[in-house]
Amino acid sequence: MRAWAALSASSPNRPHTYFGPEASASKFKLLHPDFISYLTERFLKSKLIDTNFRDLYMPSTGALMLLTALHTCDQVSAYGFITSNYWKFSDHYFERVKKPLIFYANHDLSLEAALWRDLHTASILQLYQR
Questions:
Q1: Does some domain include residue 12?
Q2: In a designed cystine with 90, which of 51, 67, 71, 98 is the match (CB 3.0 to 4.6 A)?
Q3: How far is 87 from 109, CA to CA, in rounded Å?
Q4: What molecular function terms (GO) are annotated for this protein (predicted)?
Q5: Cα separation of 43 and 34, whole Å?
Q6: Predicted TM-score (pTM) of this structure
Q7: Is 24 among the domain residues?
Q8: Considering the domain boundaries, does residue 89 fall inside one?
Q9: pLDDT band per the 50, 70, 90 thresholds, residue 13
Q10: E-assigned strands of 1-130?
Q11: For strand 77-79 and strand 126-128, is the pairing parallel, antiparallel, or unpaired?
């Protein structure tokens, strides 16, 4: 994420510039939809699925990336990810103007926060928070 933040500062809103002039398919990684379904069913099975919001719900991008890292890396450390004092900080770490985190129905951020806390407590990942 830190590398992306540095790139975004120098090339805002131009993702095609991040990969250089020879942007071959080998530079891109995609998650298979079945893997996203697996993560949703096994790790982030929200109660929102049983409500009128079921068609809106999906794990946050951060949750998908953190769980992907846990599935592919020997050691995972992360900063932030819905701290217990989240209201003190902006919605996204890279925002220059503070925007409050709002819990919309498209993500179950409370469920994600509980999962990160449990994985940190079990020493499965190292979660850094302020």
A1: no
A2: 98
A3: 13
A4: alpha-N-acetylgalactosaminide alpha-2,6-sialyltransferase activity
A5: 14
A6: 0.70
A7: no
A8: yes
A9: low
A10: 77-79, 126-128
A11: parallel
Domain count, the chain: 1
What is the pLDDT, as a whole number, of residue 52?
A: 86
Residue of 16, 29, 7 whose CA lies nearest to 94 = 7
Residue 20 belongs to a domain: no
CATH of the domain at 70: 3.90.1480.20
The structure tokens 């510039």 sit at: 17
Phi, psi (5° rounding) for residue 40? -65, -45
Of 58, 61, 64, nearest to 106 (Cα)? 58
Rg over alpha carbons for the chain, rounded to the nearest Å, is 16
Provide the greatest CA pair distance for the chain.
46
Contact call for residues 96 and 77 (beta carbons, < 8 A) = no
| Residue entry with tokens 């946050």 | 60
- Six-digit token string for 103: 């819990």
Distance between CA atoms of residues 39 and 115, nearest Å? 12
- 40-75: pLDDT as tens digits: 888 888 888 888 878 888 898 889 999 999 998 999
Residue 70 CA to residue 124 CA, distance in Å, equals 8
Q: Would you state the structure tokens that stand for residue 112, as one six-digit string?
A: 């994600």
